[in-house]
């Protein structure tokens, strides 16, 4: 499944100096992928140690509009992992509904509580909604019989409007109707401390590992050079 969203990661030091060196990083991600991006943009943990996220992109309509200038990689990583396993149709509808979309923390709680929303497909307006609820109450067969017999005095549009106001529901751009059926639990995730360890991204730790890898590589290269010099000396008889 395609990644829910990507962030444009830039070298913060160079960016503040007026030079943008960046790469797109898809979420969810791994330490290895983050390390590759850091090295590509020149963040080595020695001369350059900080990054920024300057842009986001996603095929999920309205998702990244809620991010602002958010830069907590761990929270973004966890949110992306939750979205990968959720019902995206319900998520898009819930985003259009507009509740719990003010921050990344709220979005995490939203995705965790999508079962609190009720969505009705192929319902584009109050008349459709009124017909749906009437069919639920009376049965589709009876409603159709009333309509075909031209004795149906039920105003589906007025009935649907009344139910929409009661539900506090929203019609979505894909022709669905969604409303909040139950109050979600908004206390589960408030910040990085609530993100499971396996989704956390530690930039400093990643940079330290990169620095150690570079040091070990330099030692290996230095050792190979010394060995070659030794061989050359023994062949030429020079000390």
């Amino acid at each position: 499944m395609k990644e829910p969203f990507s962030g444009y990661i830039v070298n913060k030091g160079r960016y503040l100096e007026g030079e943008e060196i960046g790469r797109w990083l898809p979420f969810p991600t791994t330490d290895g992928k983050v390390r590759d991006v850091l090295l590509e943009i020149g963040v080595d943990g020695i001369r350059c140690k900080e990054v920024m996220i300057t842009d986001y992109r996603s095929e999920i309509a309205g998702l990244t509009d809620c991010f602002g200038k958010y830069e907590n990689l761990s929270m973004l990583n966890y949110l992306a992992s939750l979205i990968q396993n959720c019902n995206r149709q319900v998520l898009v509808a819930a985003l259009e509904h507009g509740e719990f979309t003010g921050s990344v923390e709220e979005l995490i709680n939203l995705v965790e509580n999508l079962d609190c929303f009720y969505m009705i497909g192929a319902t584009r307006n109050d008349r459709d909604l009124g017909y749906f609820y009437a069919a639920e109450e009376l049965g589709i067969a009876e409603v159709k019989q009333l309509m075909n017999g031209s004795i149906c005095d039920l105003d589906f549009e007025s009935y649907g409007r009344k139910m929409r106001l009661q539900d506090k529901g929203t019609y979505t751009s894909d022709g669905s109707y969604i409303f909040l059926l139950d109050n979600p639990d908004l206390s589960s995730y408030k910040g990085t401390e609530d993100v499971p360890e396996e989704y956390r991204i530690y930039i400093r730790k990643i940079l330290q590992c990169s620095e150690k890898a570079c040091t070990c590589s330099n030692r290996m290269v230095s050792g190979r050079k010394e060995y070659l010099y030794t061989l050359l000396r023994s062949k030429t008889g020079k000390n």
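The two ends are 63 Å apart (CA to CA). The first helix runs from residue 12 to 16.
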